[in-house]
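Notebook entry, structure prediction.
Reason for the run: the old model in the group folder had no record of what sequence produced it. Starting over properly, with the input documented here first.
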Amino acid sequence: MPATAKIGYRVAIGDLRLTAGDPRASARLLRLRGERTMDGIGGWVRLAVFLGEARLPDLGAPIQVELDGGSGAATVFTGEVRALGGDPSSVWIEGADGLRSLADREFTSVFQECQAGAIAEAILAAAAVRVGRIEAGPTFASYALHAGPSALAHLQALARRCGLDLFTDPDGGVCLLGPSAASETCTLASAGELLSVALERRSPAADGVVVFGEGAASERGSERAHWLSDDLASVTGEASLGPRGELRDRSGEHPRSLIDGALRSGEVVQAVARAQAAALATRRVRGSLVLLGTPTLGPGDLLDVTALERRYPGLTALRDGSSLRVRGVRHQLDPRRGFTTEVEV
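New structure, fully documented this time:
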């Protein structure tokens, strides 16, 4: 984004409209913060607004936020009003997306011979939450969702079990994707786009995964998947990372063991082991970068910093060939710093 780029925004909250540079509007946006991440319970946004003669939005009113860092406007959040506060001269409005609403709901069901993606879509459909990109994932011979945990807890457990990441897209759609899913790549072309960087590379606590399932499907056919076997070799999967983060179908030197009775065949167990090891590979480099406002960047995207490595040679050694996969973005718009985007990797 050029230093002279004009920052813009368009915010719709029910009937309230906030637009940068609109001289006719009595309401004005004072500050904005928002986040979408793989490590939370959905996206959120918080706005400080001078209402003027405008009416305060209702709880549950739809919210959509577009930001422009100078290279074109892009939607960064879609959700609804969850909380209101403030005083007569200014208010704050807090919104959350559909993933957060799942924390307030329960969902019970039993699935037979069903892929993980179809289970996720059933949970979202029952809560009338928008479906984004959903990876098919492994097929479960039987999968039960009991009363007690929230619909969000069920979805989070499913994501963890399959080595998938759970997050929302800018339009409020819930996504369930693995690290190998096709992603957009954001290229930082100049050092001026990077305001600060704090990255670190550490040896992972585990260099692989050994997964133990249950059942006799691999030995006696799918109709006997519910049988218990005294030999777990047919329902054991192994995957590990090589020295450069490459995926291998064998146990590592320091594997993590997972025991999961929902996995009933050798094929499914091995697929889950590979997915879990692939998830380990994406966290070889961790930390955050603060950029000039970049509204198009979101969870699951790849951040290309190759063009900056001549000026910041430490980035080359730190990355060591690892891609920077975005886990979360936090947009902030205020009079002091302008529009900035903090990226978690």
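Summary: The CA atoms of residues 8 and 68 lie 5 Å apart.
The old model has been moved to the deprecated folder.
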